[in-house]
User: Which sequence fits this backbone?
């Protein structure tokens, strides 16, 4: 019921490794594999730098567990962070070698729109317009194309109303914030509609959360 199939699996977008990376990251965090989770989250950011806020929130989830719960080992946070740093720095080095910057080819692709729209930069768009467009626009709204997302919104609301007694509830809270961070980032993007793609292509990155 989402753009995972229509976008991430059927075209050579960078959404594909981003979705895979965050799905693996969530699995790693629930399966006690923080090294896998950190590497996967960092790989997702290398593929889609605009989703970096989501990786930060996953790190904050582990930090919350480590420093506010006496029964959770702190080495999970260390393992996650070290593996994320190794993969992330490798991606940065590759981008710098190939593109001359740390984020890869995105600035080159966006340069056309900056010139075409006379914008000050990639993220100089109207936040409110982008939020409306990506949520309820008939051409790009996630709630129009993927109404199943309403279920996730209800689940997130319940997670915030429930006492975070378990790791699952705590992870659900941070996952909802990760999805929100991706949504807000792309809402601020000057081309929030994602060019000539079908549906809410940009929000494909948030679907694992």
Assistant:
């Amino acid at each position: 019921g989402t753009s995972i199939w229509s976008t991430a699996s059927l075209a050579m977008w960078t959404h594909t490794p981003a979705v895979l990376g965050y799905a693996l990251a969530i699995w790693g965090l629930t399966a006690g594999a923080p090294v896998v989770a950190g590497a996967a989250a960092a790989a997702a950011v290398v593929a889609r730098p605009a989703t970096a806020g989501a990786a930060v929130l996953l790190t904050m989830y582990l930090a919350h567990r480590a420093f506010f719960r006496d029964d959770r080992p702190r080495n999970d946070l260390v393992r996650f962070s070290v593996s994320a740093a190794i993969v992330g720095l490798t991606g940065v080095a590759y981008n710098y070698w190939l593109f001359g910057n740390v984020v890869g080819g995105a600035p080159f692709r966006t340069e056309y729109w900056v010139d075409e729209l006379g914008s000050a930069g990639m993220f100089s768009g109207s936040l409110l317009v982008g939020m409306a467009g990506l949520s309820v626009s008939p051409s790009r709204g996630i709630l129009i194309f993927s109404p199943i997302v309403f279920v996730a919104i209800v689940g997130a609301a319940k997670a915030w109303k429930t006492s975070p007694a378990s790791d699952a509830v705590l992870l659900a809270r941070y996952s909802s914030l990760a999805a929100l961070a991706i949504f807000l980032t792309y809402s601020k993007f000057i081309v929030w509609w994602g060019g000539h793609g079908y549906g809410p292509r940009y929000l494909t990155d948030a679907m694992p959360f």
About this structure: Residues 110 and 116 are 10 Å apart (CA to CA). The two ends are 14 Å apart (CA to CA). The mean pLDDT is 92. DSSP finds ten helices and no strands in the chain.
